[in-house]
Design a protein that fits this description.
- The chain is α/β, with parallel strands linked by helices and 253 residues long.
- It is built from ten helices and eight strands.
- It has a four-stranded parallel sheet. A four-stranded parallel sheet has the order 6-5-7-8, sandwiched between helices.
- The radius of gyration is 17 Å and the shape is globular.
- The mean pLDDT is 96.
């Protein structure tokens, strides 16, 4: 007997791998759910959520390297059509080579047949869609994390004017950053006449509700990491739905 095709998630069943501390990824995904597309969230345990210093940030990165594969293993049991990473720090680590090595580790679990979207790759694809060359970045990280974002963007071919980290003290408290603080950094520390686009890393820092207005005010792309990964996941899977009022990336490309 021929196996039946699933009717739930007929256009895409997206497995989202995210930290146990994350509040924002599910919120953003739930705002962007085209008909026929389903989100399947799989959390990996964060034993060490303290991000209060460079050393603690490094301890966080080391700890999640051991738990991400477990969430990947669990995600594969729902037979997803695509894997989307709902965390970004590790995807920037080590620049281009580090991102490639990270993806290779994921493929040890899911194999070569399924598509994978990482935050680093998605931001690169987003910037290329706009033809941006000189960029600035906002993160919730400590300086050691900001350095990795700067490195990846430079190695991908962009001129990086500035990276500002908010130095959030825990992986969970990132989500509690006041929107006013994010707006202040974008307007007063990142924007400039020679900046083509502004990007934001750190998936627990949602900017879906504030960046579209900033784009119109500044007249340039202002791209949140979660929007970039969602957009990349959709377009990679032939899901061409446009979302208006959610930023130029989802409206134009």
């Amino acid at each position: 007997m021929k196996p039946q095709e699933p009717w739930i998630g007929s256009r895409g069943r997206i497995a989202v791998i995210l930290p146990s501390t994350n509040i924002s990824v599910e919120y953003d995904c739930q705002q962007l759910a085209p008909p026929g597309v389903t989100w399947h969230f799989c959390r990996f345990f964060v034993e060490q959520p303290d991000l209060s210093s460079d050393d603690m940030f490094m301890a966080f990165i080391d700890a999640i390297r051991h738990t991400i594969p477990h969430a990947m293993r669990d995600a594969m049991t729902c037979e997803p059509s695509h894997i989307m990473m709902g965390m970004s720090a590790e995807t920037f680590w080590g620049g281009l080579e580090g991102n490639a090595e990270f993806t290779a580790r994921l493929r040890d679990v899911c194999g070569d047949e399924i598509g994978i979207t990482t935050g680093a790759n998605a931001l690169d694809a987003s910037l290329k869609a706009f033809g941006a060359r000189k960029v600035a970045a906002l993160t919730p990280y400590q300086p050691v994390g900001d350095e990795q974002v700067h490195r990846f963007l430079e190695e991908t071919g962009y001129e990086v004017s500035n990276v500002v980290g908010l130095k959030c003290d825990t992986a969970t408290s990132i989500a509690h950053t006041p929107p006013s603080e994010v707006i202040d950094v974008v307007m007063n520390q990142l924007d400039g006449a020679d900046v083509d686009a502004i990007v934001q890393a750190g998936t627990n820092l949602t900017a879906l509700d504030i960046f579209p207005a900033l784009e119109k005010q500044l007249g340039k792309p202002v791209i949140p990491i979660n929007v970039a990964t969602i957009w990349h996941t959709f377009r990679t899977n032939g899901i061409d739905d446009k979302f208006f009022g959610r930023g130029w990336l989802l409206e134009r490309f």
